[in-house]
Automatic annotation (TrEMBL):
Residues 336-718 form the NAA35-like TPR repeats domain. Belongs to the MAK10 family. It is found in: Cytoplasm. It comes from Pomacea canaliculata. This is Protein MAK10 homolog.
Length: 721
């Protein structure tokens, strides 16, 4: 009521004047050709895709909710109806609940909504009303585990909407229970189960003659069930403790984390072997939104809580698949614990790249990111990024300004310039690590975005080099500081350009008729520059070591016999092998085109120049190496000699030679990694194929060749059919 006790005025409902526009709409639509659309500035493709079509089951979540006839109960209602037990659960029920909960957790980690996965478990909605001590402790630890996983992934920030859904929908994560208390509750249950196992083992022991066969069988079943529950309680306690250890500052928890991972890996097979002991969902027909579950799980309880993303059909992983997922996760987390053994940021970046190729889940990627760069933005939580960059540059190219025996080392102006440059370099260098933390499909765009920062950094590095050189020649005329810091930045720029280009093969973006200019660009520009850059850095290292030896008074004879402590020979050899491989692919493709086995594509709406420019568009912002435009590419890649086209056999022979040289280079490497062995197999196979083509094999065939990427995602095996 309003002041003075007067009744509020009654608002009149607005009156609408509806007009039937059906006839006008049909008349306007009849003037459009088949397939033609009317485009309005206020309603484009984006608005059309974002619009919600009312009462369409694919777009309107409410329609899906209305299709279910059975009643949906929350936890309290289900307990009142006697559908859910909160006390005196049997071991089979506990095993089934724990295994089903793990399956929902794994499904959530694969990018589905928390409400549609983990919180289909009614027990997690209010664990405090649960009277069964084991189930209550388990439910609280699951909530705490979910909370710490969300926190770790959110902090790392290396996920997209298809990777992970961070929304909690207001569900409480047992925040009033401390970490110590949550783990302690499970430890108490674990100790009780341990005592039960020992008693049941004594009672059913075959040497015991006190009980009948039936009683011994019953005791044996109790023993097996107690072991199954015990292994699960122990697993969840250790898994929660493992996540807490990864959250510690300065990597203090990694040694203990390694021990826990080993224990968890021993528990997973025990859980796998006892999956059949848990209660199973009844056999009944499943619909798109409703599926059979065990007691305590309700797939429709959160049917209206949808994430702000495109609709996804949520299928809960099976219990066996979820354990396989956990096995893979533990293997990758074990790899994370060894990252502190790496001595430089270059080695760490290489490890991050290899880790990304194994397609780890979002949790493993996030933990790796936070291990190297925790929230305090120090390497491993201890070393400033600038100091780590100095050590990395010193081991890569040994610039005079970072050498203690150089006159620039104690020059305050030189120090200020170097510190300013490396402070500026910290952000793009950290970005390189963060890019590897994203899923493989998203990395390609992110490589393109960081190129502009690296290009600007390279210009600054060249200016700093020029200034430091002007200072150095005043005191040490025989030494040079040109292209030192700039070479280091150029190395990372080239690696980023290569990663961007190779990602196109992995994502299957290139059509076979585009291979020739992609292979040429990789061979003649990117890897040619990379090999040259590595040689320059290696020469600087050699010069630094020679100068150090002379200052120590060692003889030249001893220097020749002395093995170099630092060298980039392995990186140079691998880069040369890759350059030879791509050069061989280019000649093979050109030979196949001349032979009529690969047809030139006739473009209707674009041209080869348009496609070429589109493929290498991100390189426009890079000053060094500058982008090779299409007209330059046509001139530089022309294989004709004095206007005479080469024979296909000549190109096959050149390709055969390239694959052979790549094979020899790879075989010369002392440490044969899995990647090197894979490249070797591809090089050997393609060498044989090219040799057959030189001899006239399948000369009459006009069928296009197959590029088989089964052996390697970037380097295909050429198959002539």
């Amino acid at each position: 009521m309003s002041e003075g006790g007067e009744q509020p005025e009654k608002r009149e409902r607005p009156m609408y004047s509806w007009v039937d526009v059906t006839a006008e709409f049909k008349n306007a639509a009849s003037q459009l050709s088949l397939g033609e659309l009317l485009h309005d500035s206020s309603f484009g493709l984006f608005e059309a895709m974002s619009a919600i079509e009312m009462m369409d089951p694919k777009m309107d979540a409410g329609m899906l909710c209305n299709q279910i006839s059975r009643k949906v109960y929350n936890l309290e209602q289900a307990v009142e109806e006697g559908l859910v037990k909160i006390d005196n659960l049997t071991p089979q029920e506990l095993i089934g609940t724990m295994d089903a909960s793990l399956a929902t957790l794994v499904t959530w980690l694969e990018g589905h909504s928390l409400a549609q996965t983990v919180f289909t478990n009614l027990y997690l909605h209010n664990p405090y009303i649960i009277e069964d001590r084991c189930l209550k402790a388990f439910s609280i630890v699951i909530l705490k585990t979910v909370d710490i996983i969300r926190e770790r992934i959110n902090r790392a920030g290396c996920f997209e909407e298809e990777d992970f859904q961070p929304m909690s929908y207001g569900f409480k994560m047992a925040g009033d229970v401390t970490e110590v208390r949550a783990a302690g509750m499970l430890k108490e249950i674990e100790d009780e189960l341990g005592r039960t196992i020992r008693v049941s083992c004594y009672l059913w022991h075959p040497n015991s003659k006190k009980h009948s066969f039936f009683e011994e069988a019953l005791f044996f079943l109790q023993h097996v069930l107690a072991q199954a529950v015990h292994s699960r309680v122990r697993f969840y306690r250790h898994f929660y403790a493992l996540l807490l250890l990864f959250s510690k500052d300065k990597t203090e928890g990694l040694p203990q984390a390694q021990k826990l991972i080993i224990q968890l890996q021993e528990l997973v097979p025990l859980m796998h072997s006892s999956l059949h002991l848990g209660i199973q969902a009844p056999n009944r027909e499943a619909s798109k939104n409703d599926y059979p579950t065990i007691m305590g799980f309700e797939p429709l309880i959160n049917q209206r809580l949808l994430p702000p993303t495109f609709p996804r059909y949520t299928v809960i992983r099976s219990r066996a698949e979820s354990l396989d997922y956990i096995t893979s996760l533990l293997q990758r987390l074990h790899t994370v614990t060894m990252v502190t053994e790496l001595t430089s940021l270059h080695a760490a970046l290489e490890m991050f790249m290899e880790f990304s190729k194994s397609l780890p889940c979002v949790l493993a990627r996030s933990i790796l990111q936070l291990t190297l760069l925790p929230p305090n933005r120090r390497i491993f939580g201890m070393n400033p990024v600038v100091d780590s960059l100095k050590e990395t540059i010193r081991s890569f190219i040994a610039p005079p300004v970072l050498s203690p025996k150089c006159s620039l080392y104690n020059n305050s102006q030189a120090k200020d310039y170097v510190d300013a440059l490396l402070t500026r370099a910290a952000r793009p260098m950290c970005t390189l690590f963060q890019i590897t933390g994203h899923n493989r499909a998203r990395q390609r765009d992110k490589w393109a975005h960081v190129l502009e920062d690296l290009s600007n950094l390279q210009e600054e590095a060249d200016k700093v080099d020029a200034y430091l050189h002007s200072l150095l020649i005043k005191t040490e005329p025989n030494r040079s500081h040109l292209a030192c810091l700039g070479t280091w930045v150029l190395y990372h720029t080239l690696q980023t350009m290569i990663n961007y280009t190779l990602a196109g093969f992995e994502l299957e973006l290139y059509a076979p008729y585009e291979y020739h200019y992609v292979y040429w660009y990789l061979s003649e520009l990117l890897f040619a520059w990379l090999v040259s850059t590595l040689h320059r850095a290696d020469n600087f290292l050699l010069e630094h070591e020679t100068l150090s030896d002379q200052q120590k008074g060692r003889s030249n004879k001893k220097n020749k016999k002395k093995k170099r402590p630092r060298s980039l020979s392995r990186e140079i050899t691998v880069a040369q092998a890759q350059q030879q491989m791509f050069g061989a692919y280019f000649k093979a493709v050109m030979g196949l085109q001349l032979d009529g086995k690969m047809k030139h594509r006739q473009f209707e709406f674009d041209s080869e120049e348009v496609r070429y420019s589109h493929r290498f568009a991100p390189f426009v912002s890079v000053v060094t190496p500058s982008m090779i435009h299409y007209s330059q590419y046509k001139d530089m890649s022309d294989l004709s000699h004095n206007g005479i086209e080469p024979a296909p056999e000549d190109l096959y022979g050149a390709s055969c030679k390239g694959f052979h040289q790549a094979k020899c280079l790879l075989e010369s490497l002392q440490m044969q990694t899995e990647e090197v062995q894979s490249l070797l197999r591809v090089a050997k196979t393609n060498f044989v194929v090219m040799k057959l083509l030189v001899s006239g094999h399948k000369k009459e065939s006009v069928d296009p060749p197959e590029f088989d990427f089964g052996q390697h995602k970037v380097y295909p095996v050429i198959k002539v059919v």
